[in-house]
Amino acid sequence: MSLCLCGEEIADRFVFCPHCGVELRGPGQAAVLGVSPEARSVCRTLRACATRTFERLALDHFTGSASGEEMYTQLNLGDLQRLHSDRIVVREFHRRQEARNGADWEWWFHTAGRGFGLRVQAKRAKRGGGYDLEHVVRTTGERQSELLVRDALAAGCLPVYVLYNHRNWVPRSPTGLVVDCRHGRGSPTQLGCTIVSALTVQAVLRHRPIRASYVRDRSVPWHRVLCDAPDTGRSGLEAAHAAVEDLHRRGSDDLRAAAQAEVDRLRTSTRRDAAARPGPTGGTGGGSARPRRSTPAAAAWGREPLDDPVYPGLDELAGHPLSRLPDRVKSMIRERGFEPPDARAAGVVLVDLTDV
Description:
Blueprint: E1 2-3, E2 9-10, E3 24-26, E4 29-30, H1 42-63, H2 69-83, E5 88-92, H3 97-100, E6 104-111, E7 114-124, H4 144-155, E8 158-164, E9 193-197, H5 198-205, H6 212-218, E10 220-221, H7 222-226, H8 236-276, H9 296-299, H10 314-319, E11 323-324, H11 327-333, E12 345-352
Parallel strand pairs: 6-12, 7-8
Antiparallel strand pairs: 1-2, 3-4, 5-12, 6-7, 7-11, 8-9, 9-10
């Protein structure tokens, strides 16, 4: 252990000071006295945003003044753009305020014209720790979670939720546990901003009551997915893509398991009804029961869990290798054209992972 120029103790293996964000050239030796965008770690900023959200949301609930997701999103995106203006650009689609509330954001990660996108819906934890996962969009009457998946597919993105959490959560699943990374020690406050596949949310929505704890425990601190510390032998873009693919695979498994459980319940219910039904009139011998008409429950037995019209192509999209960016994304990177892909998109975050 040694001391950073800011006076705080740091581990010798850290590349950035976890307290001030300054890049380290050697144990305890800062590259610069100030904190420039070039010296600051995106991972460190994500961790700091999570800590602020964790503490502020708890305080806001305590004082009865908790704001909606939009306020926390604006604060976090503002910090990312301000502290990393060399690689992060935020384009906001200006529209009426009522059209922005509850809208999604696109996040595109790119290098040299290649990359991948996420469609992000933010959800703030309530005072008791739950989320408004069953929200229905008033203008369409459709469930917001299904619109998120559908809009993501249309835009060539993977759908995810970013969860804003506070101090009432202790993870029970190893998936959501905080861990050290090269930029600093793990801390419970990093649970302030976590990310989870929208398919995990869809899986939970198949059951009643809604189990917010399951969604939280399947989410991971967002810096673990978007950290700019790639694995050995992979670029930052490749490492981020692999992390998001893994998040989607786990969400797909959650949804398939939930759909199968639903089919199993229908099968059990149908068998129970059949056993309770009286036998054919005229005794037990010599006759045969009239064949039963197929029921929706029986028809669902052989249904592929992801055959719903919302989902075709989603797994294929997740399995695609990194490809060329869509022309509309290239235009936004070049500061040309700020047209939203659909009416529900609030803006786009463009993250350049070159040299990461």
